[in-house]
Design a protein that fits this description.
The chain is α/β, with parallel strands linked by helices. Helices cover about 45% and strands about 20% of the residues. It has 4 domains: about 170 residues, Rossmann fold, CATH 3.40.50; about 120 residues, 2-Layer Sandwich (Beta-Lactamase); about 160 residues, Alpha-Beta Plaits; about 260 residues, TIM Barrel (Alpha-Beta Barrel), CATH 3.20.20.450. It contains 30 helices and 27 strands. The protein binds ligand C2E and magnesium ion (2 copies).
């Protein structure tokens, strides 16, 4: 090494700047030593002349000076050693035979110290052993004394030239090393994995990124085939990349595949393989780039970039596109996708499949009364329970709101589906306890079976939906298979809506009345107005078959207003005929109640028929009351002030608590017919009726029982102190004309007398 100050393992930044510096001043590495003159090339060299004889020393010095070289002088060996110890010399002209420290000692010293100066021995000792010894000790050359000036200078200049060559060599080596270091630095610090494969596809180079990216040591992979690094599922794709033989623009770029990683990206190292998404480039390498022949192909090189974060983001987006974010269940789009696959499969294998459309019966109520957060939690809990009813391969999707759809791709018979539907209803009937609230949500399930109920995904879903609506209509909480008759009834909700609008305009809606009877006297106290649709083709259509849709579309408002005006007219007529205590109960929908100007319109409708407000009872379900209390309460108070009677319909099926109820200006609780239906001979199941009776008593509210179907119920209700009843036991809802007859004949007095008589005298008659 000539340049003792030459930098080795320097930091990349330094090495880079030095590289740039040396590019600006070629060869400057050799010239950086300040002891070497800049202008005179010869003056750059450091020369030392050593002789124990002053005159010889001076003459040599002069001779060298004459040729333009500057030299230092050392008189004798000891002085030479001092000079060599203090400065670096290129060439030393050294006398051998000197007293004290001889030329040989100086040579020994130079070799011991590893001085890289060229020592030319100038000596009178021309013996072979003397020269041999000198050369052995590292002398560059030998000039015999008395020297010939030309020969001496030539020898010296040869030595100097050699010095220069060595300097240049070293500088070049240095530059090469730096440039290689720079490239190695760039390659190793690249955010990408950089690799090279030999012609057989085995790794011959991998940069440092390998370890931090995939957790492998370089040595583990060098010489191994690339397939060891590729995820098993992506081997085929990898073959196309890593066997890359093309170059330039045609080379493979941005191929995405998974490489095996040993790193757990979120925690400490794990030694089981997991895969990382990478984007790869690859280019063929040829021994002669101009001749890309099979023989010339030496391998492939390229980069691999970690794109796992992007892939994850894509996966999230993809997930969001096909899943419901609340429950993480598949959404409508994914269900349709799976359904169409399942249909194709079933068609090929001549198999059946089932689609269930499931709507929660009382979700809206929870959402409206307990808030959306609670609603969301309930939906998640429902989703979990539903999932626990499924088998592998079944798909449960959320269609939005409280609607779920289930695809059962493996169905042999209807009974298979019945088992699952029953299981679902069972699970959903058990209460959900959320935040201390006990919530009850039943479900209505419509089922369509491929191929009977349709052979496209749209038809199957639509028909399951239609069947679900039938369940809703028949009192909810059950399941129903789609049948062609349903299709004949109303093929779609849309056509139903169209027909209903038309029916309204054509006056096809009729008002039927069901008498309400005093359980004390058997007299008719009033009637409940119930809508019917006298359809020209389908006959008499029950409310259950069109009111849910009417509520959804808002048509319910027109229906209610129509029913009310008709009912007011009829009851005004009956009152005018002498039945002046007669009242009419009308059902109110939430939509009508919430509508602006409702009270004014209602009052106007009363006035039109000349009916007193006292003659009217509003039946409002608990659910309706809870919808928008701020809007509803003032309206009800206003109506109450005018004298309108207000009753809670279907009482006991909602979530209203006492504290809620007290905010409403109500007079009557109407016991839901399901509880009345529970009254049996043994009286064991009637505890809810008892509780409602006690509650009404506490709140000083009237009671009316709906759905009274037999004598047992009548007797029990009477015994409990329920003052009014309504139900098939007395009469089904009938047209107005029949009511007119009924009031005249008053047929229920004896019925009630007989029905309640056997109950004994213990009945707390007239409790209300
Ligand atoms: P609701 O107000 O609770 O009416 C009582 C329902 O019970 C009526 O059904 C009636 O026919 C039925 N019912 C009466 N007695 C018995 C019995 O002993 N056993 C059984 N199983 N059922 C009995 P309907 O007429 O089919 O009406 C169903 C529901 O539709 C009504 O329930 C009410 O919520 C709604 N609705 C009917 N008409 C109207 C209307 O004009 N406007 C509004 N908004 N809703 C109406
Ligand atoms: Mg009612
Ligand atoms: Mg009711």
């Amino acid at each position: 090494m000539r340049n003792h100050d030459a930098a080795h393992a320097v930091s990349p930044g330094e090495s880079f700047s030095r590289l740039r510096g040396s590019q600006g001043a070629p060869g400057s590495a050799a010239g950086s030593d300040e002891t070497r003159g800049q202008e005179n090339p010869r003056g750059r060299h450091a020369i030392l002349i050593v002789d124990d004889k002053p005159e010889l020393l001076n003459s040599l010095h002069q001779l060298v000076g004459l040729h333009g070289y500057q030299a230092d002088k050392a008189l004798g060996g000891a002085e030479a050693l001092r000079a060599l110890g203090g400065k670096r010399y290129d060439v030393v002209l050294l006398d051998l035979i000197m007293p004290g420290v001889s030329g040989h000692d100086v040579l020994d010293y130079a070799s011991r110290e590893g001085l890289d100066c060229k020592i030319i021995v100038v000596s009178g000792d021309s013996s072979f052993s003397g020269i041999k010894h000198a050369l052995h000790c590292g002398a560059f050359d030998f000039v015999k004394k008395p020297y010939e000036a030309g020969e001496l200078i030539a020898t010296m200049e040869t030595a100097l030239r050699q010095c220069e060559l060595e300097d240049q060599n070293q500088a070049m080596g240095e530059k090469l090393r730096e440039s290689e270091e720079l490239h190695r630095f760039i390659v190793n610090n690249s955010p990408d994995l950089v690799y090279m494969l030999d012609r057989n596809g085995c790794f011959i180079f991998l940069n440092d990124r390998l370890e931090s990216l995939l957790g492998y040591e370089r040595d583990e992979l060098i010489g191994r085939h690339y397939t060891e690094l590729v995820d098993d599922d992506h081997l085929e794709r990898a073959r196309n990349v890593f066997n890359e033989r093309r170059m330039g623009e045609r080379a493979a770029t941005n191929v995405e595949l998974k490489l095996k990683s040993r790193l757990n990206r979120r925690g400490p190292r794990l030694f089981h393989a997991q895969s990382l998404w990478m984007e790869l480039t690859a280019e063929g390498v040829y021994s002669d780039p101009n001749e890309r022949t099979r023989e010339n192909f030496v391998g492939t090189y390229g980069t691999a970039r970690d794109i796992s974060e992007r892939k994850e983001a894509e996966e999230v987006i993809n997930f969001q596109a096909y899943h419901d974010l609340l429950t993480h269940l598949p959404n409508r789009a994914l269900l349709k996708d799976r359904l169409s696959l399942a249909i194709a499969h079933a068609r090929r294998n001549k198999r059946k499949l089932a689609v269930m459309f499931l709507d929660l019966d009382r979700f809206k109520l929870v959402n409206d009364t307990l808030g959306h957060t609670m609603g969301d939690r309930l939906l998640k809990a429902v989703a979990n329970r539903l999932q626990s009813c499924l088998r592998r391969g079944d798909t449960l999707a959320r269609f939005g709101g409280d609607e779920f759809t289930l695809l059962l791709p493996e169905v042999r018979t209807k009974d298979d589906v019945v088992v699952i539907a029953s299981k679902i209803l069972d699970r959903l009937n058990a209460p959900f306890v959320i935040d201390g609230h006990e919530l009850f949500v039943g479900a209505s399930i419509g089922i369509s079976i491929y191929p009977e109920a349709g052979d496209s995904e749209e038809t199957l879903i639509q028909n399951a939906d239609i069947a679900m609506y039938q369940v809703k209509g028949r009192g909810k909480n059950g399941y129903q298979f789609f049948s062609e008759e349903m299709n004949h009834s109303f093929s779609t909700r849309l056509s139903l809506e169209r027909e209903l609008r038309n029916g309204l305009a054509q006056g096809e809606l009729k008002v039927y009345y069901q008498p309400q009877v005093s359980l004390l006297s058997g007299r008719i106290t009033g009637v409940e107005a119930l809508v019917r649709w006298q359809h020209p083709v389908r006959g008499l259509v029950e409310p259950i078959d069109f009111l849910p849709m009417a509520e959804e579309t808002g048509l319910i408002c027109q229906i209610d207003e129509y029913v009310q005006s008709q009912a007011f007219r009829d009851v005004a007529y009956w009152r005018s005929k002498g039945f002046d205590g007669m009242r009419v109960s009308v059902n109110l929908s939430a939509t009508q109640l919430e509508k602006e100007g409702f009270v004014d319109r209602f009052v106007a409708s009363l006035q039109q028929c000349g009916l007193e407000a006292q003659a009217v009872k509003l039946e409002i379900t608990e659910n309706t009351l809870m919808q928008d209390m701020e809007v509803i309460i003032p309206k009800l108070k206003e109506l109450r002030r005018l004298g309108v009677h207000i009753a809670i319909d279907d009482f006991g099926t909602g979530y209203s608590s006492l504290s809620y109820l007290q905010q409403f200006p109500i007079q009557t609780l109407k016991i839901d017919r399901s509880f009345v239906g529970d009254i049996r001979e043994d009286e064991s199941d009637a505890s809810i009726v008892n509780a409602i009776v006690a509650m009404a008593r506490g709140l000083k509210l009237d009671l009316i029982a709906e759905g009274v179907e037999n004598r047992t119920q009548l007797r029990y209700l009477h015994a409990q102190g329920c003052s009014e009843g309504q139900g098939f036991f007395f009469s089904r809802p009938v047209p107005a004309s029949e009511i007119t007859t009924m009031i005249r004949q008053n047929p229920f007095e004896s019925v009630v007398r007989e029905g309640t008589a056997s109950a004994g005298s213990s009945a707390p008659a007239g409790a209300f």
